[in-house]
Fold:
Amino acid sequence: MNMADPIIVGGTSLGLSLLISLTLTPLVRRWALKRGFVDRPGAGTHKQHARAVPFGGGIAITLAVLLPIVGVLLGAMLLAGWGAERLPWLTEHLPLWPYWAGGVIRKAPEALAIIAGALVMHLMGIIDDHRPLSPWFKLIVQTAVALLIAAGAGIRSAEFLGPIPSIVITTLWIVALTNAFNFMDNMDGLSAGVAALTATILAISAFQAGQVFVPCVLLLLAGAALGFLVYNFPPASVFMGDAGSLVIGFLLAVCTVLTTFKNVEQQVRPFGIVVPLLVFAVPLYDQASVIIRRLRLGVSPFRSDRRHFSHRLVKLGLSPTAAVLTIYLATLATALPAILVPSLSWGEAVLIFGQCVCVVVIIAILEARDEV
Structure:
């Protein structure tokens, strides 16, 4: 791949979804307000906003990611169907179009599986935002979607372990990361900002491995999250709700499964398997720490409260905006080195991973002052 190609393709993906998200978010916000599709604070709840805030951001995010994917699929099928003999100007002005269209069509089954899974997560999220569903029901649906992705569509990791272990690991990963970003949607600007950062870093890693489809999807997601973040950064005028956070977590999880994290042509050894753990160290830490705290208190791990990383930072004296920015920095501290991991030696990769562990442990130690 020419060095300029990732910049052009990636920049187009990012810019397109950013534009769609920037345009759709205020429109959906206005629609949600008229329909009364809002998040109302209640006395004694975990919610911190003082006034009703409209949902709908998740709709804008989902459309900003899926519409370009569908458009590209339809465009590739149209080009492949018409052929160069019917559209000779394509060969003159776009000499690589047969290769491009063919590559997209080859990825169509994976793309359609991703679209279907994202839509199921999105629709379930919309229903849950309107009228809360049982946490166990949502977990069952998430697991079913993840199983269909892994077993049905064949999108799975750790295949060297055999079909069954590979399917189990992939399913658990998709469910875990989906819920990690759902957990992170607890403060204005948090989930969208972390999603934009992690998606961009993963996209860079995927481009380095010579991939195109996966990093483009990731940059579509990053652009969609950034466009929404304009309206969601503190103080938020719109929420993404589960309709957005479940889709974000699902897409990030599936894209990490699809990313090779190594360049086969350069014969780079596959240390990149730790890249997802580095990139998502902070969201996974937040999820694990919250669940552990809730279980220690004898309450359901699905019960919403103010025991998240962001809430604990606020309790330690930071403003909500400062807490969100601090988590952005913590995410960058663990995720940025992941870009280098696939090209490192064993010793260097272990050092990077050890550094990430140290950052997370430092966070945990500092947070220990706020045991509740």
Q: What stands out?
A: Confidence is low (pLDDT under 50) at residues 89-99.
